[in-house]
Amino acid sequence: MQGRTIWITGAAGRMGTALRNCIKENYECKLVTTDLDVDITDMAAVDRAADIYRPAVIINCASISDAEFCENNMVQAFRVNALGARNLATVSRRINAKLIQLSTDDVFEGQTIERLTEFDTPMPVSVYGKSKLAGENYVRELNPKHLIVRSSWVYGTAKNDYFEFVDRMGSTGTTFEAPVDRVSTPTSARELAGFILSLIDKAEYGIFHASSEGTCSRYEYAREILALRGYDTALVKACRSREDGLVSSTHLENLMMKMTGLYEMPEWKDDLSRYVASLAPRAGKEDER
Known about the structure:
By secondary structure, the chain is α/β, with parallel strands linked by helices. The protein has eleven helices and 14 strands.
């Protein structure tokens, strides 16, 4: 990676921020970061940027991930999540760059307790999941030098995620509900960034799952955040999000990672504990001692 140019799109978001920080802390390379200044849905703009930057690697973090927004704005969701990926795949092949496409566990139906590997067939039910799968397909078809990285419940380095919500509820002493029938794996953006960067200089291509190990419900996740942050765990109340009694569950198995021995993801509780330890002490904590 030393001396190479890496272009990160969507660099102002959660994963873009985590990747920027990880690269700056650990590598010496030319880092190019863009967000709204380069519209990835505009093929001409992507072409111009690629010719200016001449990156060896493009990491596409640009995405519309708000599920409700995607349901109500299908055209815009597909424009960014699918068309944007198509444009980056096309230009990365033209300049012989590796393309790393960030994806999601939402490409699966989310109705099974079985562990899902990279070899299981995606069947998304949401507009968000469908648009991300369309982006995956464009990347696979248009640039053989690609990596598609799927993860789940990614948190950290940016606001407006579930961790930040729970932390805000805890800091204000506000009770809230969390479902016991939504199950997946919390994964820190920093750990995911570490895995992604470990692949840049390796001759590895294809799809990789990259979630922390183990699973939990949203309720269990919320209780763990509250406990680690020193808040009252009784603030969170268990609820159900489905009336049919079923469980919405997605458990990504990091099979390719384990087969290749490239990286080892931590248990989700260990990952969360390390992330919380990296944060500044919450307000008033020193005065309580």
